[in-house]
Amino acid sequence: MVKEDRIQRAATILRESRDVVVLTGAGISAESGVPTFRGADGLWKNYSAQELATPEAFQRDPQLVWEWYDWRRSRIARARPNPGHLALTQLEKATHRFTLVTQNVDGLHDLAGNREILEVHGNIWKLRCTECGLERVDRTVPLDPLPPLCECRAMMRPGVVWFGESLPEDTIALAFQRANQCDAVLVAGTSAVVYPAAGVALAAIQAGIPVIEVNLEETELSAIVEISIRGRAGEVLPFLINDREL
Ligand code: BV8
Ligand code: ZN
Questions:
Q1: What is the pLDDT of residues 14-26, one digit of tens each?
Q2: What 3-state class would DSSP assign to 145?
Q3: Is 245 exposed, middle or buried (0-12, 13-18, 19+ CB in 10 A)?
């Protein structure tokens, strides 16, 4: 089936759905200039995100890990939502029940105006104390001092979920619950290699719920979803949603 037909079919499925769950990954923020996790631009000082986004890396060299997060925060601070993000705010307005599950920590879905957002990997603007657990939102770029300190004088950590760490229980449980009971799932901009987040799409497939994928490259999900569309989220998502009466 040619791309236009896939887009039309996907737009029809979404238009006829009263309950939609969306799962996004780093690819949806790529057109806003935010580096993806595994793409060519995902490197920083020759370190891969995979090796820095771990408790072990933070334990070993908190200064290095904080420099990486401070660099990402300063890039994200300059980023604005792109047409892909904005199409998802239109979709939320036009859908009776809507849940946006995001693996991204950049906060761009909130900035774009989505409301029902489940941040399963946390948020880069949140800091959490390594000692007393105090959590606060801090949008200072660059952070000074680096690492940032808590009122209790202990070192703060980024309020994100690292590899090997558990996701916020109720958030990921709600994401799975919604994916099992919705009418359709839209997956956009994720390589679908990180679990349990990618499992949200699998759960819907296993429940016989139509899953639509929009991604620049083929992924583990492409062969098993209802419709897989190759393309940029900023270009494709508006077509999936714009022909809806609001
Ligand atoms: C857990 C927050 C239970 C931090 C992130 C071995 C050892 C230890 C663990 C594991 C292991 N094997 C498996 C695991 C589990 C592990 C995992 O899944 N690993 C993978 C890599 C195999 N998962 C975990 O550890 C999770 N926790 O399992 O807890 C537990 C508890 C205790 C002990 C053991 C287990 C925690 C995972 C969360 C990690 N934190 N981020 C931060 O951001 O700094 S994950 C990170 O990857 C980001 O959140 C990112 O969003 C996420 C997924 O990546 P993507 O979003 O898909 O980004 P990626 O670059 O990969 O792909 C982008 C896609 O977009 C590409 O396909 C590209 O083609 C496409 N694209 C690009 N441009 C566009 C586009 N598409 C459309 N339009 C465009 N313009
Ligand atoms: Zn503290």
A1: 999 999 999 999 9
A2: coil
A3: exposed
pTM value is 0.96
φ and ψ of 32, to 5 deg: -95, 5
Ligand 2 centroid from CA 228, angstroms = 46
Choosing from 7, 22, 31, 37 the residue with most ligand 1 atoms within 8 A of its CB, the one to mutate for a pocket test is 37
Residues 192-241: pLDDT tens digits? 999 999 999 999 999 999 999 999 999 999 999 999 999 999 999 999 99
User: Is 49 or 118 the better-scoring residue by pLDDT?
Assistant: 118
Cβ contact 185:23 at 8 Å: yes
Q: What are phi and psi of 54, to 5 degrees?
A: -140, 150
Task: Return the SS3 of 128.
Answer: strand
Active site positions, annotated: 121
Residue type, 50: Q
Ligand 1 atom nearest to 197, measured from its CA: 37
Radius of gyration of the chain (CA): 18
Name the residue among 186, 19, 22, 229 with its Cα closest to residue 109.
22
Strand pairing category for 122-129 and 117-119 = unpaired
Q: Which two tokens stand for residue 10?
A: 């996907």
